Amino acid sequence: MKKGFLAGFVLSLTIVLLPVFLYMDARPSSRQTETAAPQVVAIPAAPGLDPLPPAPAPLPAPTAPVAPRKDPALPPETASEGDPRTDNIVMLKKPLPLHAFPEHRHRRGIQTRTYDPDRIYTLRTAVSHVSLIDLPEEAKEVYMGDSKLFLAEVFGSRVKVKPITYDPEARTNMIIYTLHKRLTFRILMAPAGREDDLITFRSPRAETVVNLNPIRTDLKKTIEEKADREIESNREKSLSEAGPTVPFPIHGEESGIVFTFLGFSQSSHHTFGLLEAIDRGTHPFRVTRIRIRLFRTALLWEGEKKYDSQSDWERGFQEEMPAGGRARFLIPVESIPRVGSHEGIQVDLSGHYRGGPEIVLSRDSGAGGH
Q1: Residues in CB range of 45: below 8 A, 6 or more apart
Q2: Residue 294: per-residue pLDDT
Q3: pLDDT digit string (tens) for 125-176?
Q4: Domain of 119, in residue numbers
Q5: Is the same domain home to 324 and 271?
Q6: Could you say which of 172, 202, 232 is where a domain stops?
Q7: 359 φ/ψ sector (left φ>0, alpha ψ -120 to 50, else beta)
Q8: Beta strands in the chain (DSSP E)
Q9: Rounded Cα–Cα distance for residues 145 and 143 (Å)
C-alpha cells in the first residue's frame, strides 16, 4: 500500500516538473560559447523508480572581452590604422621622450644659403629634373667640369642645371662668376625625391655691394695715362740728350740769353724740334714759349716773308734756368719741313727774368737754307 502510493507520487511529480526542466535546458543550449560546457553527472534513481532527468547546467558567468595580443616583432612607431594587431591603442597621459621615436630626416628641395667664397656647395640633381640656383646678382661666367654629364644654362641671375646622363654615379664640379662673387659647386646624382629644386643665395648682412666697374675703369685709365706720360717724358729726355737726328742749326743771342736750334729728332711715332738755351745773365731766366714757323719769300722782294699757318708749331713751358744754367727743349712738329731757295725756318723763344718784362728772341735760317 505504501509502495504504491510512493510510486504514484513520484510519477505525478515527474510529469509536472518535466516541462520546466525541458524549458530550462533549452536556454543554455541556445547561448553556447567557445568555452566547454561543464560535465553533468546523473543521479541514480532509487530502486524500483524511474531515473530522474539530469539537472540543468548553470549559465556561464559573463566575462570581459579579451584584447588580441600584439605582435612583439612589430615596433609601435610603425603601426598603422586598420592593422588587426594594433586595433587597441593605449593613450598615455605623459608624452613619450623624443628618443623613443626613430630619427627621420627629410631634406627639403628648396633651400636658402648665405654666400661664403671659401665654401664648396653640394648640388643634388636627378634624371628628368631641373635644379635652379638663384644668385644675388647676374651671373657672368659659368664653368662646368664635364659638360657631357651635366648641362648648365644662364638666365640673368639664375643658373639652370640638369643631368644629361643616366649614370647614377656621375658627378662633376661647377664654378660660377658674378660681378663681385665666385661660387663653387660639387654636382652629383641623387635618388628621386632627394634632389635640390631651388637653392637661393643671399649676401651677408654686413656685406655692401658696390659697383666697382666705373671705379676700376677710371683707375685703369689714370694708371695708363700716367704710364704714358712717364714713357713720353723718358723718351723726350732721351731725345734731347742724344742730339738731333736731322741737324739744322740756327744761332741767336739777346739780353744775355744764347739759344741754338739744333735740328729735328725723330722717334717711332713723333717728330720734335730740338732747341738749346743758355742763361749767361746774373738772374734766373724762365722760358715760357717756343715756336717754330715755316715761311716763304717772294720772288721779287727777298725781305718779305709769308708764313704758312699750317706749318706753325709751338709749345708752352715753365722751365726756369738759373744764372749760368743750360737747358734743352723739344717742340712737337708734324713733319720735318722742307727748306728750299725761297723757304726757311724761323724760331721764336719767349721768356722773362724773374720779375722782369717778357723778352722774345727770334732767329731764322734765311731763305735758301742756313
Answers
A1: 51, 52
A2: 87
A3: 999 899 999 998 999 999 999 989 999 999 999 999 999 999 999 999 999 9
A4: 110-202
A5: yes
A6: 202
A7: beta
A8: 110-114, 120-125, 131-134, 139-144, 150-155, 158-163, 171-178, 182-189, 198-202, 246-254, 257-266, 271-279, 285-297, 305-321, 326-333, 343-353, 358-364
A9: 7
Residues 124/170, Cβ–Cβ less than 8 Å? no
**Domain boundary pick from 202, 235, 259:** 202
Number of domains in the chain: 2
Check whether residue 251 and residue 359 sit in a common domain: yes
Per-residue pLDDT band for 49 (boundaries 50, 70, 90) equals very low
For the record, the C-alpha cell of 241 comes out as: 740728350
Does 310 fall in a domain? Answer: yes
CA distance 352 to 54: 161
Q: Is residue 116 predicted with pLDDT exceeding 80?
A: yes
pLDDT of residue 289: 94
Answer whether residue 75 is part of any domain: no
pLDDT of 65 strictly over 70: no
Instruction: Look at strands 158-163 and 150-155 and give their pairing.
Output: antiparallel
Beta-carbon count within 10 A of 256 CB:
15
Beta bridge partners of 286: 320, 352
Same domain (yes/no): 194, 252: no
pTM of this prediction? 0.39
Contacts of 353 (CB under 8 A, 6+ apart): 281, 283, 284, 285, 286, 359
